[in-house]
Amino acid sequence: MRDNAAVIGLKESHGASYGDNWSDVAFQRMPNVSLQPATGKQNISADDLIADVKDGVYIEGDGSFSIDQQRYNFQFGGQVFWEIKDGKKVGLLRDVAYQSRTPDFWNSCDGVGSREHYRLGGSYFDGKGEPGQINAVSHGCPPARFRKINIINTGRKI
């Protein structure tokens, strides 16, 4: 893809193409992406962000996911889910996921934690392509608050 940078008017590649090994075709991949922590001297924790929530869900960790090929519509789960009422964790929930469109999701972010609470995670198994290829990726973020995101119950009853 380095050869193609000039075709779109760039002097050099941004390094976002990857092939699983030497014999696979390299194609564009998402670069490592991180949500930057709040700047300033104030220490902003998850509890500080939760304090301003009247009715919501706090999700810890990552879980199942589904995302379309354009990375536009998605559904994500987590590992632990807390019900939030009047700024406090009031109990655990189960079978929770959230859905959104990527631009709506990022535009709904109205608070992020500070550097003290930033965490970096990663995976060696980010799959993409036909035939499939895998790639290592990392994503980091502090606690963050998103308003008016669709929360669903994923539990099934037969």
Please give a structural write-up.
- The chain is mainly β.
- 7% of the residues lie in helices and 42% in strands.
- The termini are far apart.
- 7% of the residues are buried.
Helicity level:
under 10%
* Structural class assignment: mainly beta
* Number of DSSP E strands: 14
What spatial form do the alpha-carbon principal axes imply?
globular
Report how far apart the termini are.
Answer: 50 Å
How big is the Rg? 19 Å
Average pLDDT taken over every residue: 89
Q: What share of the residues does DSSP label as strand, in percent? A: 35-45%
| Strand neighbour order, sheet with most strands | 5-6-9-14
Q: Largest beta sheet, briefly? A: 4 strands, antiparallel
Keywords:
158 residues; mainly beta; four-stranded antiparallel sheet; three-stranded mixed sheet; 7% helix; 42% strand; globular
Q: What is the structure about, briefly put?
A:
The protein contains two helices and 14 strands, in the order βββαββββββαβββββ.
Mind sketching the topology for me?
Layout: E1 17-18, E2 27-28, E3 33-34, H1 46-50, E4 55-60, E5 65-67, E6 73-76, E7 80-85, E8 88-93, E9 96-101, H2 102-107, E10 109-112, E11 119-128, E12 133-141, E13 144-146, E14 150-153
